[in-house]
Amino acid sequence: MATAQKTAITLRGSVEIVTEFFGYSVNSILYQRGIYPPETFKKVSKYGLTMLVTTDAGLSDYLEQVLSQLSMWLIDRSVQKLVVVIAGQESGKTLERWVFDVRADKLPDGASVEARPEKELTSEIQAIIRQITASVTFLPLLDEACTFDLLVYTDTDVNVPSAWEESDPKYIAKSEEVKLRSFTTKIHKVDAAVSYLAEDD
Amino acid sequence: MASGPWSKRALDAGADGDAHKRPALGTVVGPPVGSDCEEDDVAGAAGGAAPPPPLPPPLPQQTLVATPRAAAAPPLPLSGAIAPDKENATPAAGSIRGSLEPSASALRASGAVWAREAEMLRASERASEAARSREAALAASELERRSAQLELSRERERTVALTRQRDFLEASESELRAQLRALRTSAADAERETRKALDAARAQAAALRDDVARERAEGRSERSELARQLDAARDEASAARAEADAGRADAAAALAALAAARRAEADARARAQTAEGAQAELEAARRRIARLESLEQREPELRRELEQLQHAARDAASARADADAARARAAHATQLREELADARAKVASLERNAKDVRALELEKTALVEQLAEWRELCTDDSEDGVGGGGGGAPSAAQLADTLRQLRVQVARASEREGALAARLRHEELAASAKEAQAALAHDDAEDWKRRAHDAARAAAVDRQRAAAAEAERDGSRRLLAAYAAADAARAGAGGAGGTATPDLRELQDALVAATARADAAAAELEAARADASAARGAERTALADAAAARAAAERAAELEASTARELEAARRFAIDAGAAGRANGGDGTMGAAGADGTVPKPPSHRVLHLGINPTQRATEAMVESLRERNRALQLRLDALGADGALGADGNAPRPAGAAAAQAAAAAATAAANLEAAQAAASAAEAHADRLKTVFREKIHEFREAVCTLFGYRIDMVDRRYTLRPLGGSRNETLLFNSGADGSLSMLESDWAAQLSPLIGEYLQRGSSIPAFLAAVTLQLFRDGPAHGFATQP
């Protein structure tokens, strides 16, 4: 009788999973909110779903740059949040904020913990992606051409490369928030939420 | 029963009419004996008493068949004799009757025959009925018998069961009776035993009662006996007491006599002793006199010693006082030393505070400069009218409020710094004064320490001397007490040898005086000791005061430390105020500016993003487009100005710049349009490329699906379709051509020549290309996996 093998996960493994999730989530948000034309996205299969990933070279480079630095900060346990800010191009007003809270377990370097079953992890990530897709039903329509920015909340003593700079958190003045689901790798816990500009009654 | 001449009714009607006239036939059929037969007339006709004869065989019915008509009217004999049938008589029969009287006898005879036959029939019928009834009765009896048997068997079973129950009941009854007998026997036995026990108990009780009575009687007798004995004893005791009293009286008398005798004896001894004692006393007196003389010789020495002791006591007291003073001064010096150390520490902390104050002052100047910069920025922002990008940028009023609050806090911090500086200066002065005092006190303390040490040594020597003087004094006292006792004894003996010489008295007086002086010295020593203990107490008090002073110094140090902490907090607040001013709503809020003076918490995170990000690119693109638009508008404006200079009639020269500006504007517009068109073209190209890619993917997907589903790879070139089976060789191809009307026709090929039977069957005769292809597919499938049909992915 075959026995289930217990796998362990290290900090690097968890960082990889979380970074990959962020990449796919940002692409989903950009596609679902129409920030970029749909024809600039291609379908790939991930997490048991058909995910849409950008084919725009410039956008891909930008995402690659951000995610690689993010993974380094995640290894240092310096990351607190990743925020996708969607703002109007002309007005400059922040219309939506997709907030991914990251909490890291205080694990010694090189240590590992028992990994969760891949199915469970995949189903949790799936649920978040589905919720991002389903959020179009309640999020207000974006009437104007929009652009986005990726903000990373880090600890104050983090090492900041020269290409990075301090930013305004770009809060929404009158917002409504919807909490989405979360997932955990036992080393990192990621909570998702979306804030959007409340429509005037 | 069918109606007819043989019918019972007809026969009965005929029979009943003259049954009472007809004689018994002797062949009457009746039911068997004992059966319930309803045909009572049969038994009645037979007379009822005689046993029924055996039944004649029943007549066959067909011999009696007659038509209903004939039943209505009996068949006419050939001679025409007809029996009158009044019941079924018809008018025609009546007419016939009247015409046939001559043959009445024949008719009567035939009638009789008929009657006889009818009777026979009736009898047979009765017999048959009786037989049937008998059979029925037999059957019923059989049933009854069977039921009776069944009942009997049931009864037997019930009987058996009842018998078994009875036997069981009898057995149980016998058992119960046996149990009952046994119970009765046991009950009787138990009763007997109970009675026996009861009798035994009664006997025991009676015996016990007798014993108790006996014992009571014995007790009473004993008590009486004891009472008598007691009385006797009391009498004896009283007698004994009386005797004892008498004896005591005798003893007392004897004792008195004895005492008298002893007294007499003692007197005698005393007299004898006095005589001896006088001698001894005389010798003792001589010895005393010698001692007194020696004491007298020693008196000056003793006086000198006493004076010395007194001096020593005075010196000891003074030394003690000096030692106490020295101790006090030493404690004071210690206290001063401690205060000096505290003061030095305070000076060091104040020096540090002074450095911090200087640093704070520097920061304060930096903050003031920052404030000035902010003021400038605020005035610039309000002039430019730029609200700032992003949601949540603070307004100028909010900035001003923040600045005001920061100024207030900076002012408070400066006040605190000034107060701390003043305190520092004051502490410095106090520390320097204390230092000087401490130095002097230190010197005095050293001096007094030396003196106290010397005084202590002298006091120790004096104490030893005083102890020795006390011992000598105690000895002298004891000696004097002994002399006094001896004198008293002499005086009590009657002066036998009690005449003391006047010289002895003088010596005694001198001795007493010396003793008094020794007592006084001892008293002085005691007083000195008391003073020393008081000094020790004062020393302890001084130490307690020093400890209190130390505690006060520690409290002062704590106060200094708290002041330093406040300074540090003020310094940090100043730094944070500067950082908050720089960030200025960096976390979306105006910051806990601390209007109530509280120190705001420093931010716990940083918000970072890539410098080159999509928003920034979009902003730059928008700025660039706005610049281009601006440039174009400027050129247009210049062009308009140039056109106006040329004039409409061409004579008046238009300003050259206007034409140029117009041309430039037009050129700019054209350039802008060109750019827009190029952008649209590039977008369209990208869209087309994307569509091409999508179409290509879809087509490929469709071809693969068709190939998998139908097993043929279909290629189309100019209306010619080439079908190749999966896994087939290059020669295995089928060619189809599509006509203008859309119809398909197969072309010749090498492989098609091998498939001629199928072609003939499905294409030529069946005219069905799908059927042909299906047949080819099946053939290929049967051929095996060589063509890839048997194995599907």
From TrEMBL, chain A:
Gene3D superfamilies (UniProt xref): HORMA domain (3.30.900.10)
InterPro entries, per database record: HORMA_dom (IPR003511), HORMA_dom_sf (IPR036570), Mad2-like (IPR045091)
Domain named HORMA: residues: 12-194
Family annotation (PROSITE patterns): HORMA (PS50815)
Cellular localization per UniProt: Nucleus
Keywords: Cell cycle, Cell division, Mitosis, Nucleus
GO BP annotations listed: cell division; mitotic spindle assembly checkpoint signaling
Heme among keywords: no
Signal peptide segment: none
Top-level taxon: Eukaryota
GO cellular component, one term: nucleoplasm
Pfam families recorded: HORMA
Family: Belongs to the MAD2 family.
Name of the protein in question: HORMA domain-containing protein
Organism the protein comes from: Diacronema lutheri
From TrEMBL, chain B:
Highest taxon of the lineage: Eukaryota
Key words of the record: Cell cycle, Cell division, Coiled coil, Mitosis, Nucleus
Biological process according to GO: attachment of mitotic spindle microtubules to kinetochore; cell division; mitotic spindle assembly checkpoint signaling
Pfam families: MAD (PF05557)
Single GO cellular component term: kinetochore
Coiled coil: 275-416, 504-531, 616-643
Record's signal peptide: none
Entries under InterPro entries matching the protein: Mad1 (IPR008672)
Protein family per UniProt: Belongs to the MAD1 family.
Protein's name according to its UniProt entry: Spindle assembly checkpoint component MAD1
Organism, scientific name: Diacronema lutheri
